[in-house]
Amino acid sequence: MKTLLLAVSGVMVCVLSGVVFPLLVAAEPVDFEIPEQSLASALAEFAAKTDLQVLYSGELTRGQRTRGISGRYEPEEALGHLLKESGLEYRFTDHHTITLERAPVVPLPPGAPAPQSQEVPAHPAPATSPNSGKPLKLPEILVKDVKERGYTADDSSTAMRLSIPIQETPRSIEVVTRQVLDDQKVLRVQDALRNVSGASMPSSQGGRAGDFMIRGFRSDQSVFKNGFREDSTFGARASRDTANLESIEVIKGPPSYLYGRADPGGVINQITKSPLRERYSAVDLTVGSYNLYRPSVDLGGPLNDSKTLTYRFNGVYESSQSFREGVRIDRIFLAPTIGWELGPRTTLRFEAEYLHDRSPIDRGIVAVGSGPADIPIGRFLGDPTRRGEINQGKATLIFRHQFNEAWAWRTGFRSAVASEKYDSLESWFLLADNRTLELAAFRIPQTVQSHYLQNELHGHFSTGPIGHRLLLGVELGREVQKSTVLTDSSCAFLGTCAALNTIDILNPTYSFFNNPLSTINDSSQTNGIIGLYAGDQIDLLDNLHLNFGGRFDIFKQHLTNRPDAFDPTDREVEETHRAFSPSVGLTYEPLKTVALFANYTRSFMPQSPGARSSQGTLFDPTRGRQYEGGIKFQASDGRLRSTIALFDIVKTNVLTSEIGAGGAFTGFSIATGEQRSRGVEFDVAGRILPGWDVIANYAYIDARITKDNTFVENSRLDNVPYHQGSIWTQYFLQEGRLKGLGAGIGMYAQGQRNGIKLVQPTAFGQEPFNLAGFVRMDAAVYYRKQNIFNRTNLLASVNIYNLLDQRYFAGAQDFREIVYPGMPLTVIGSLKFEFY
């Protein structure tokens, strides 16, 4: 039996098998905005609004869809509208439980007309009791069950900025649900990507926001939150926390058709938790290896009697050390959200975040010879007592208005501000003896800010027999970065110091002196963005869906370099780029459980404003194009889904070195480079049997440099293995005295990778090295008890990472002196109480 959580209000008497159940309630209509979708997912949305327990077999909703509902309804009538034309009926089995079952087939009398479907009225009459004709008043129910969300999602809002069934969308889409995050005890977004084929984070930028990798291409500019850009430059300086996330959606391939500038690998969109109409609170204490201490709270509920004002608050304090010697991390994360129902069809949502992070810049260890140095992975090659500090805040306002059943309006505004005090003594160059490492001091005060305004018109209508889900939008944006780079790494050239600090990687001593610092860069960058975008999901037939869209961007860059130790002049560069990025795809469902899809998509990404040609001009953006095709499978009840995708991506206008007369490098760049990535991916997630869940993936990726003057053509891109994949599965006992006891086990593996790109003999560069392949095993044990106390659930877990204590490396960052080791054996325990 499949269980959903629903709620109702009113007074009624239900007769079932001769037993009478009086249901006492207060009757409060509820505002519903549930679009057309699968019946199972519509019931899930209904559950989030109302909190009544409904039982039904998954076979009853197999392949079923509902027209949805919009407006203010008594909950029971809303349920009736959702079930219309489904052939299902409901009955009360106790004071707070409804069971769905198939309606009996009653033969029509001879000559009687066939029943006709009716549209849901815009303003329905109040529900009435079939016996009394009076308005129904059903009781408000406090939910006592642990909310199990599962490992799959029916819909995704990322691929088209609209909620569209994943099975019908002609893109490769993977969703990491909250249940997966909880079961694996994922605290940072980068750790969640092990559950997505072809995705990883090989470079953490010294322990900060990091560079993600999708389908062989770096994608640090392709991270979003609720559809707003949250890249690692203007949006997020510190590593991203999962405390307020409901899910993480990854759309593979170039995403510029709706999201503007982006790398061609894909887009990561973080979906945050919503305000709640019913009271809920949870406290969680997480402790673990290396003195991890992380208490957190999750609170929500109504702020007034009519429940038109609701809220959600997530808060975290984290203090920990690390397997990296001397490292200490302190973090505070606060995320309040307020929801306001201004009317039956109008909502306003305010969401804020504040993150404080204090931690060292950690560049890992170094490579010696053909691989990482044979030293302990915990050895810190620098000064761990110098800790950087990041403070970042975000505020988001989203206004929605439903004009009628066909048209809706969305206005969203997001403002983000961050300041970073970068203070580090870190690896610079390894000397010829392969043990003496020069250390450079950096102090980089910087501030970044970004502001985006989005206006969108959403349409859901038909032209004859053809259905449309239309999106028209415009986005305005402004981004500003100001930074000053002070360092002693150039002091020898300037004659201001005798030598840099050094450390012996084989026998380190942590005694350092302070060199005078010189300003080598004092700059500011301002970007202005105008984006016009449109998309349409067209239902040509019930089983044939055409998806197309495109975006036209105007991107203006303005860079100012003020006088520094090397250049005494002011310099300003300004450039405006225009780009159109189309996308078209087709999905065909020969069966409700099978979908064939294909698409063609393009992307663009402006070049770094610091790179200039010999003529002093900026470069045209890089462009990406993808051909993708595949097949999606889903079990009849939608609880198990899988995707197989093949792709071919080419990235052009990549910067490479300019070669002058006689074959010498000029020191300038030209945009003639090209990179290509081809491969196949497989993902599966869901429930195999009651209590048994799995999420697994595999990717084969051949990512290569196809044109370049600096790097070896046809060589593999760095940090991209041919093979990578993972599997996580868990099982909970369903019956008996040990019900609620569970265990999970998983594996994460990557093949051999290039640590850095291979440099041509004539180019200046470093000797190549490799990162060996690895297999990491994880495990967990759980105990979950409903109603351990009155209105209280218990959730306890112990998660073990790298169970076999394998030595492995997550990736490298462009230099032999920056190699990031993976965590050794680590144990984390969590005790959580939920209150309703």
Automatic annotation (TrEMBL):
SUPFAM superfamilies attached to this UniProt entry: Porins (SSF56935)
Main localisation: membrane
PROSITE patterns for this protein: TONB_DEPENDENT_REC_3
Protein's cellular compartments: Cell outer membrane
The keyword Ion transport appears for this protein: yes
An individual GO BP term: siderophore transport
CC terms in the record's Gene Ontology section: cell outer membrane
CDD domains given in the database record: ligand_gated_channel (cd01347)
Region listing for Disordered, in residue ranges: 104-136
An annotated Gene Ontology molecular function: signaling receptor activity
Ranges for domain Secretin/TonB short N-terminal: 52-103
Membrane topology: Multi-pass membrane protein
Alphabetic keyword roster: Cell outer membrane, Ion transport, Iron, Iron transport, Membrane, Receptor, Signal, TonB box, Transmembrane, Transmembrane beta strand, Transport
UniProt KW Transmembrane keyword: yes
Family in the record: Belongs to the TonB-dependent receptor family.
Name of the molecule in the record: Ferrichrome-iron receptor
